Amino acid sequence: MWFAPAVGTDPDETTGEPENLYRLIGARWVVAVLHELRGDTVRYNALHRRLGGVSHKMLTQTLRRLERADIVVRQAHPTVPPNVEYLLSNVGVELMDNLALLERWADANGLPH
């Protein structure tokens, strides 16, 4: 299915199947998270502050979805308190390059993004 599911439904994590691209990038916070990670390694709390308005639960769920899709890499450092950083994988960088093309197309055609 190329369109997103009804609001309030979550992908089934038990099937082990990869998540549909449109379902993934159409999720509320995904593109915002990807933009914040572009060209940067970002600690979880800094990412949460930058996004403003996302709950810790939603940010964690979004990051886990992106990590399962191999778009984001999670780096946990064994410190007290734990230091967790996120960065785009090579696949994530490539996805952002393609999203940038889509955004340029939207700009050229007067579409908001």
Can you offer a commentary on this structure?
This protein has about 110 residues and is an alpha+beta fold. It has one domain: Orthogonal Bundle (Arc Repressor Mutant, subunit A), CATH 1.10.10. It has helices spanning about 20-25, 30-35, 45-50, 55-70, 90-110, and strands spanning about 40-45, 70-75, 85-90. The chain is globular and about 50 Å long.
DSSP strand tally: 3
Give the count of structural domains: 1
Helix and strand sequence: HHEHHEEH
Euclidean distance between termini CA atoms:
23 Å
Which class do the helix and strand fractions yield?
alpha+beta
- Tell me the radius of gyration: 15 Å
The strand line-up of the biggest sheet is: 1-3-2
Count the DSSP helices. 5
Which fold name is given in CATH as the topology? Arc Repressor Mutant, subunit A
> How large a portion of the residues is in β-strands, by DSSP E?
5-15%
The appropriate CATH architecture is: Orthogonal Bundle
What is the CATH H-level superfamily?
Winged helix-like DNA-binding domain superfamily/Winged helix DNA-binding domain
What sort of overall outline do the alpha carbons produce when their principal axes are compared?
globular
Assembly category: single chain
Write the layout of secondary structure elements.
Layout: H1 21-25, H2 30-37, E1 42-43, H3 44-51, H4 56-68, E2 72-77, E3 83-88, H5 90-108
Antiparallel strand pairs: 1-3, 2-3
